[in-house]
Amino acid sequence: MQNSPLSKIILEEREFFVKRDDLIDPCLAGNKYRKLYTLLNTPDNIYDTLISYGGTQSNAMLALAALCQKKKWKFLYYTKKLSATQKERGSGNYAHALKLGMQHIEIENDFYKEFIASLRLHVNAKTCFVDQGGAVQEAKAGLKVLAQEIQEQSRGLHVKAVATPSGTGTTALFLALALPEYRVYTTPCIGDSSYLKTQMRALAEIPNNLVILEPKRKYHFAKPYKEFYEIYKALHVKGIEFDLLYAPAMWQALLEQTSEKMIYIHSGGVSGNESMLKRYRKKRFVSDCAKIS
């Protein structure tokens, strides 16, 4: 695969370069491609089953479903119990993952945490277990490749800062370790900085060049916010669509708390916008939502 390209945009009179990892693959794009790089390069006959867990609109879930379809592996995905409405929805990452062959197993909410903790104890040599969001040590290899691409493409651009939003923080952490000469910005999109640091420290020590920007107000993950839609729309008119779950919080933090030129790593995940835009319409935060979607 060739390096994903850089696009230049001007936002609020600032110049940004966007690393277009969203163009890698319709389902295996962005940070999920980087995190799953090792598995993508694993011979098909090493495993016959992959097991993971998490939310039903997860970008990681869709990426794993696409990977397993390519590898011809069985994909078992565990979640908490779904509502009737969630099951009936015929759109979004959940529906796409089912079409790719995902086998979905629901666990009663009261037993979910204990059940997930016991899952890895019952896997065999032909089964691959992937933690929620792809937060695994194997992700380091793919982020090292990304770091090399950034080093090559940023020559002559006078850029020494990159940015990527965080769920588990895996991408930001391993990217910062692979790019010690760069400042790596991130912001917590799930929980706060304390929670994010705990997730990161489970994988490695946090390097000094990793800068965590704390949002100026508390946001609930996946909840529609008018200001997030405004950022999404402002970026969209520049010719690039970003996801509505992670990107708005990162862009908001960058615009409010930084000033230097930088490379923004596009995390992909735009397939989830189909279901998110429906929620924005339902909230009636905007009247022109349909024009962009």
UniProtKB/TrEMBL annotation:
Q: Which cofactor does it need?
A: pyridoxal 5'-phosphate
**Name recorded for this polypeptide:** Pyridoxal-phosphate dependent enzyme
Q: Where N6-(pyridoxal phosphate)lysine occurs, residue numbers?
A: K32
User: Is this entry keyworded Cytoplasm?
Assistant: no
| Keywords, in A-Z order | Pyridoxal phosphate
Q: Which GO terms describe its molecular function?
A: D-cysteine desulfhydrase activity
Question: Catalytic site residues?
Answer: S58
Q: Please name the InterPro entries in this protein's record.
A: ACCD_DCysDesulf (IPR027278), TrpB-like_PALP_sf (IPR036052)
Query: What protein family does this chain belong to?
Result: Belongs to the ACC deaminase/D-cysteine desulfhydrase family.
Instruction: Supply the Gene3D superfamilies for this chain.
Output: 3.40.50.1100
